[in-house]
Amino acid sequence: MNDDKSKETEKFETSDFYIAVYFKAKGSKLLEARRIGNENNHKMVFSFEYAGQDLEIKKFYNKECLVEPVAFSNAIRELRGMTRI
User: Fold this and answer.
1) Alpha-carbon Rg of the chain, whole angstroms?
2) What is the DSSP track for 50-66?
3) What are the sequence ranges of the domains in the chain?
4) What is the pLDDT along the chain (85 residues), one digit of tens a residue?
5) 82 to each of 45, 59, 78, 85, how far by Cα in Å?
6) pTM of the predicted model, to two decimals?
7) Are strands 42-49 and 11-14 parallel, antiparallel or unpaired?
8) Quick one: which of 19, 39, 40, 49 has the most CB atoms within 10 Å?
């Protein structure tokens, strides 16, 4: 049976920069980074493909997560560059 329904990818969204950095460093697929608000008062929202981030967020805030330091540093530079566009 051929099902032509298009499945929309489940997303996890955050405006917390360092949570976004953590997910990027862990290899989560970044789907979109968008600016919300006006020119003088804005923030970025990062959308990742959903892959059970709820548990990872708990680990992050409980200081139980591990990430490769160079990957974390690279993710900071990459996402910070997106915020300046």
Assistant:
1) 15
2) -SSHHHHHHHHHTT---
3) 11-83
4) 444 444 566 899 999 999 999 999 999 999 999 988 877 778 899 999 988 888 889 999 999 999 999 999 999 999 999 887 5
5) 11, 26, 7, 6
6) 0.80
7) antiparallel
8) 19
